[in-house]
Amino acid sequence: MSMPSSGPLSGIRVADLTSVLLGPFATQILGDMGADVIKVEGPEGDTTRELGPRRSPGMAAIYLNANRNKRGLCIDLKTKDGHAAFLKLLETSDVFIHNMRPSAIKRLALTYEDVRAVNPKIIYCGAYGFGQDGPYANKPAYDDMIQGVSGIASTQSSLMGRPGYLPTVIADKTTGLTAVYSISMALFHRERTGEGQEIKVPMFETMVQFHMLEHLYGENFNPPLGKAGYPRAISRNRHPYKTKDGMIGVLPYVDKQWRAFFTMAGRPELMADPRFTTIDARLDNIDEVYEILGDIIATRTSAEWLADLDAANIPAVPINSPEDLLHDAHLEAIGFWKSMEHPTEGSLTYPGIPTEFSASPGAVRRHAPNLGEHNAEVLAEIGYTDAEIEKMTSAGVLHSRST
Asked: Is 245 a catalytic residue?
């Protein structure tokens, strides 16, 4: 599957030396928005190629779902010819992104100084575990480790009775989003000034900012006006509530919504309860407030509550499982789930692009590439002859799924 490029990043080439999820998620978004993303892998391939169910070797589910809208180049950068070819690719690229540790990228001679020497206008984005000026600079980092050190796992203690990881790779994906907006801003700066630059996106600092936005709380002030931790978010009673026949999510928030909720619940006396009269009072008594809310929700069925709460404009939703999302009425109505015929993997389902652009919409133009699928195509574009490409293949500089 291939379509002409469209989207706000049409005409931008991205040399993508990332793996696992942080970087591939970021570059997939850039590809969705029209960029020409060249996914560069070593002979062993991205580790996610073997992560999850698959129909073919190296084409597992998580890889397929994070690598659409890319072309695949599999090249051994540790060889002289492979390194030289990659530098030629960088000469034609607008963006270079990697998620290797500083020591590893230095060994490959692909630091910002190395790359800037061949392309001064390039946007060079390094996604790291930790900022490069502190004692953690060279520590390895995976999502679980960053959830732990950033305080997210500890905050879960309020709900679980012990520290715990969120059941999603939130650090990888949030840092990937941060890389996307950082690259986009750098491209905008270059558009105005002609100046390239280096961007460093650390997972740890990104997630501390993300986590502590609300949880810094009383520690915002010097001296502190209370402990860190936003009480509503860490209340032990903040969870989906049981109904007579299932569970729903419900959140009366402003005063008007609470008054409407108590009226429909037949509990008007609670409108005068000092624990409920203001948002400050509710926050001071949040555990009790949510316990009472849960007791009331348990008195009716899910369908009854959802109908009444929607009518009163009180936020309420069903509790969807991952499987439920594939048949969610809203997602079906907007055509969110897409189908793709992959040339080797058959029919696939994947999520659509969530953002809408009135003038320059993104699109899904390409399937996730097989290992080295576009070796010849990409190298020909940067000046290599068929004979040179064949020689590099025979010498083990280039690899593909079939070699």
From this structure: no
